[in-house]
Write the C-alpha cells for this entry.
Amino acid sequence: MMKTTNRWWIAGMGTFLQLCLGTVYAWSFFQKPLMATFGWSNAQTTWTFSLAIAFLGLSAAVGGVLLPKVGPRKLALTGGVLFGLGYLVAAVALHFKLLPLLYVGYGVVGGVGLGLCYVTPVATVARWFPDRKGLVTGMVVMGFGFGALLMSKLIAPLLIAWTRTEISPQGNLPLIFGLLGVVFLPLTLGAGYFLVPPPAGYVPAGWTPPESRTDTRTSETDGGRGLFVAMWILFFCNICAGIALVGFQSPMIQDLYLAHDGNYQEGPALAALGATLIAISSIFNGAGRFIWAGLSDRIGRVRTFRWMLGSQVGVFLLMTQVSHPWVFGGMVCYILLCYGGGFGTMPAFVSDVFGPARMARVYGAILTAWSAGGIVAPLAVAALKDHLGKRASIWAFGLAAGCLGIGLIISLLMPDERHASRCHS
C-alpha cells in the first residue's frame, strides 16, 4: 500500500497538471495579436477558444465514464498527448494561415485533451483524501485558475519578446504555439504518470471513516434528474458570466485605457496592461475556488450559488456605467472570484446530491455546462464587438446580468439547505 505521505505527491501532480491546462484561460492575451497578424475578426478568432472549452466539457463527460474503466494514469496520459498535440497543430495552422485547421488543432484536439485531463485529478484525489476532500479538490481546481497567471505574465510575454521583429511586432505566433506544444507535452505527461488510484479499501492513517448509514442520496428516478437539470443551469449561468470576461478581459481593458487616457496607443505597453489584468484576475479565479467552496461547507451549496449569482447581477449592472480601467479591473476580479467559486463548489455539490460512487460520472456530465457556456458567451461578446463597436460592452454586461438573474431565480426555486449532507442523512 502506498504510504500516506505519498498521496500529497499525487495531489501536487494533479495541481501541476491543472496549472498547465489552465493556461487556456489566457487566450485573451493572444486575441489582439492574432487579429492584427492575420486580419481575422473577433468572432473568427474567438471560435478557437470557444471550441476548446466546448470540447473540454464534452470530453470531460466522456472521461467521467471512462475513468473507472481505464484508470486515471491512462486517461491523463492520453489527455496530455492531445493537449500538447493541439498546440503543435495550431502552430502549423498559423504558419499556413489556415483558420479551420486552427479550430481543429487548438479547439478540437487540444480541447479533448483538456477535458480528459481536467476530470481525472479531481476525481482521483477525492478518493485519496476522504478525510480532506473539500480542501484537496479545491487545491487541485485552484491550479487551473492560476494557469492564466503563468501564461500571461511569464510564458507568453517571454516568447513574444524573444520572437518579436520589425516585421512581426506581435511576435512569431506560429513558433510561439509550436514551442508551447513542445513544453506542455512532456510536462503534462510527467504529471499524468503519477495519477494512480488508491488501493482497494484504502483508509488514511489516523482517520476513522464515519459510521456507515443507508445511502439515501438522490437517485436518477426520484427527482435526481430534476435536480441535475437545476444544478446544470446554475453552473451554466455562472460560467457564461465569467467566461465572457475570460475571453475578452484583455482587449476590453485595453480599449478602456485608450478611451480614458490619450497617452496610450496600441503596442507592447498596452498589451502588458491587459496581461496584468489577466494575471490578477486569475489569482481571484483560483482563490474563489477555495473561498466559496469553504463557505458552502458552512451555509450550504444552494445558498452559496445564490450569493454568487445575485451579487454578480449587481456588479454587471454597475459595469455598464463604468469607464475607469481600474474600477473595471476590480469588477472583473470579483466576477472571476465567483466564476472560480462555481468550479470549487460544484464537485462537493454533486457528491452531496448523487454520492461519491457516481461523482465522476455525474460531475463529468455537469461539465457539459462548461461546453455550452464556452460556445454561447464568448461568441455572443465577439459578435457584439464586431457589430456594435464601443457600445458592445454595455450590451454584453446587460446580457450577462440577465443570464445570472435566470440562474438566481432557479436557485431560489431549489430546496434550501444549511448543509447539503443533512438532506441525505
Q: What stands out?
A: Confidence is low (pLDDT under 50) at residues 1-5, 212-216, 418-425.
